[in-house]
Design goal:
The protein is an alpha+beta fold. It is 27% helix and 26% strand. A hairpin with a 5-residue loop joins strand 24 and strand 25. The N terminus is likely disordered.
Length: 733
């Protein structure tokens, strides 16, 4: 739907901000929305000086804009501006679809940039303009428009996916039927023809077309991705004309002649026939790639990286221990702690590197740091059937830990995450906005296979869609629904480098990976490298563009990709890109010391970056890098969670003379409450559940009415590790 470019922005200078705009004082006025329809709107404004025209579009005031319209500011210098914003969806009050936020930008001939009424800043003093499209006319004559997006390149012998989004303009919400030429759901859901002027390519090139309504399909079977209408003898998508995203698979045989093609789909909804055409080109999958002899050189910035490795490692290990001691359990949605971006993996890599390279072994300490993160994470997976959010899937730390400690909890947690959670049923996203989740799901399935499980049926689908995501980035058509941050490209490349090794080990090397990765990373560099800032531009869709070196903290999520390209091909240009990113990642201490998340981002991939730049392709997360070191003692406090009086006490638990306190722990542990009318406490309940339990409950009696009490809950596990909550309060009625 929303096509956007990973592109260089035409923005020139920023000036002082005012309440309502940036740039020249009172330059922009009279912003209006005209000719609003269900799929487009004209944004109109006036300027004092003749200037360019550009609209910045977002769908949430809390996130950066996702589109610039036009992608490059219209160079025509005018004082009355009109920009048509298209490819929108109708407004839906229930879902929030069709709600957009905008500001406008104009540049004078003297390169003076003004924006209004924003852009939004951290204080909210520049609120964006709210704009809504017209809603669907549910009583009108049936009319459905279709947006498509996806890679324009398909490789022989592989599957390629593109997206289809039906947008209901009028008429009732209805099923979307898929017309197949050879029967229901047998790869004939569309007709493939050679593109005009390419008549030499046979129309019967053997390309299969499969239309998918479902994004959750644990079995990976085609029939599970459509409903079937016996009356119509057709497949259909339930209520599928209502702005839902679907995908189409193009199954391209190895024998298909390369060249341009087009696939035509016939969809039927509310008795209305909708023809959808999608052009693409088939290219020959390479059977190898070229590599030249490589010589290693000193890695710039390595000394600073090594120093901060231990400084920051100790800082964030200490933070985790302090939080555990105080019982400040943060949960798995909070990103400020070092657990995020697989801190367990990071600490185990620090353990290896400090011992083998720096010759300063401290195995007990660094393994404790890793366990402090991995223990609650692994037990959480088991207690919650692996229902981790897609952006929080980190299997490699647990996998490394199992090899090192033979802790069955780690093995079972990876398997639970890979086979039971909601993410285990996802067939992957065609939209590059989902490439992070495509990457993380593929990682969890590959890690599970490394631990002995069978290959999960959806792994190949997520890989194929991930390759499509990178092709779209390389082609400059970024995808449906949002902009792609450069660091997400780094996440995708890291996963695909692992996939390449995975496919080699399986005896079927996926030779698409190297050219696709190279094309995506070269486009990323050519359009996003900030030469005088020494980092990738992670805020491309914001006008005015403010150079922010804090983003250097993200450099090392991309450095590994360029290092891997050099390792595979010997291309010294790619190595220099890796050097540029890696050597500047530590330039701004303020950026990477305020958050444990940045610490993990800096070090999650950079250990492999160093190995690759030393011409060593063995990852720190491979089995050979994690030999068994002996069964590891549990050292992590049994963190209390879900205390019924975290904030307001649950109804019915507090009386005038008594209070019932309940909580859970992630491992079996004892039960006790320490309480009193001040933070000196002074009283405690009898220690209970000494045999250990996960669910804890105790009742305090003899309390005074109308009195505020302080308390904390305390649990000790079977290894003697004690955990407590922070200070909590309740008041008796």
């Amino acid at each position: 739907m929303h096509r956007f470019l990973i592109a260089t922005l035409f923005v020139l200078a920023s000036s002082c901000a005012s309440f309502s705009s940036t740039g020249l004082t009172n330059e922009i006025s009279n912003i209006q929305f005209q000719n609003t329809t269900q799929t487009s709107v004209d944004v109109v404004w006036t300027t004092v000086h003749p200037s360019t025209s550009q609209v910045v579009l977002a769908r949430d005031i809390n996130y950066e804009p996702e589109r610039l319209i036009p992608a490059m500011a219209d160079p025509k210098l005018v004082t009355t501006h009109r920009v048509t914003v298209a490819s929108l969806v109708p407004y839906n009050s229930a879902t929030g679809d069709g709600q957009y936020y905008v500001y406008v930008a104009s540049i004078t001939s003297a390169s003076q940039l003004s924006t209004a009424p924003g852009p939004q800043d951290g204080t909210g003093t520049h609120p964006l303009l709210s704009m809504r499209t017209l809603p669907t006319n549910l009583s009108g004559k049936p009319s459905t428009q279709v947006y498509t997006s996806g890679p324009a390149t398909a490789y022989t012998g592989h599957d390629t996916y593109f997206s289809v989004q039906p947008v209901l303009l009028s008429g009732p919400v209805g099923h979307l039927y898929i017309q197949a030429t050879g029967g229901y759901n047998n790869d004939t859901d569309g007709i493939v023809s050679p593109a005009p002027g390419n008549g030499s390519v046979s129309a019967a090139a053997g390309i299969g077309v499969h239309y998918s309504c479902q994004w959750a399909n644990a079995g990976g079977t085609d029939p599970a991705e459509q409903w079937y209408s016996a009356a119509k003898k057709m497949g259909y998508c339930y209520n599928g004309n209502n702005q839902n995203f679907h995908s189409v698979r193009l199954r391209v045989p190895a024998r298909t002649p390369p060249g341009p093609y087009s696939v035509t789909l016939t969809l039927i909804s509310n008795e209305q026939t909708i023809k959808v055409a999608y052009p693409f080109k088939v290219v020959q999958t390479p059977s190898s790639f070229t590599s030249v002899n490589k010589t290693t050189t000193a890695i710039p910035g390595r000394a600073a990286w090594e120093t901060q490795m231990t400084v920051l490692g100790k800082k964030w290990c200490s933070f985790r221990d302090t939080q555990d001691a105080l019982g400040n359990y943060e949960g798995w949605g909070w990103q400020g702690d070092a657990w995020f971006y697989d801190g367990g993996r990071v600490f185990q890599q620090i353990d290896d590197y400090t011992a083998s390279v720096l010759q300063t072994p401290n195995h007990t300490y660094w393994q404790h740091c890793a366990q402090a993160i991995l223990d609650p994470y692994a037990y959480w997976q088991l207690a919650n059937n692996g229902n981790m959010a897609g952006y929080s899937i980190f299997p490699y730390g647990m996998t490394m830990n199992y090899w090192r400690t033979h802790d069955e909890v780690m093995l079972n947690a990876v398997n639970t995450l890979a086979t039971m959670g909601a993410q285990s049923r996802s067939t992957g996203s065609v939209d590059p906005w989902g490439m992070r989740e495509n990457s993380y799901r593929a990682n969890m399935w590959m890690a599970n296979a490394q631990l002995g499980a069978a290959q999960w049926p959806l792994l190949q689908r997520n890989i194929d869609k991930l390759i499509g995501n990178l092709i779209m980035c390389a082609e400059g058509t970024g995808g449906v629904g949002g902009a792609v941050h450069p660091f997400m490209v780094g996440l995708a490349v890291e996963t695909l480098s692992r996939w390449y090794n995975f496919s080699v080990a399986a005896g079927n090397p996926d030779y698409r990976v190297v050219p696709v990765v190279k094309a995506a990373l070269d486009t990323l560099w050519n359009t996003n490298w900030v030469t005088d800032g020494s980092y990738l531009n992670y805020n491309r869709f914001t006008v005015p563009y403010v150079k922010d070196t804090n983003y250097q903290a993200l450099n090392n999520l991309n450095a590994q990709g360029y290092a891997w390209l050099w390792y595979m091909t010997g291309d010294t240009t790619e190595r220099q890109h890796a050097y540029d990113l890696f050597s500047h990642a530590m330039d701004t201490p303020g950026a990477y010391q305020w958050d444990g998340k940045e610490f993990s981002q800096l070090f999650e991939f950079s250990f492999d970056t160093v190995r690759l730049l030393q011409n060593n392709g063995v990852s720190y997360t491979d089995p050979s890098s994690n030999s068994f070191a002996g069964f590891w003692p549990a050292t992590t406090a049994p963190l209390p969670t879900s205390v019924n009086c975290n904030t307001t006490c649950a109804t019915g638990t507090i009386g005038s003379d008594h209070a019932t306190i309940t909580w859970t722990t992630y491992v079996v542990a004892s039960t006790q409450v320490v309480y009193g009318t001040t933070t000196a406490y002074g009283k405690q309940t009898v220690l209970a559940d000494t045999h250990g339990t996960l669910s804890h409950s105790t009742t305090l009696t003899g309390l005074l009415p109308g009195t505020k009490y302080h308390f904390y809950v305390r649990s000790v596990d079977m290894n003697g590790n004690a955990g407590r909550s922070a200070d909590l309060t309740f008041t008796t009625p």
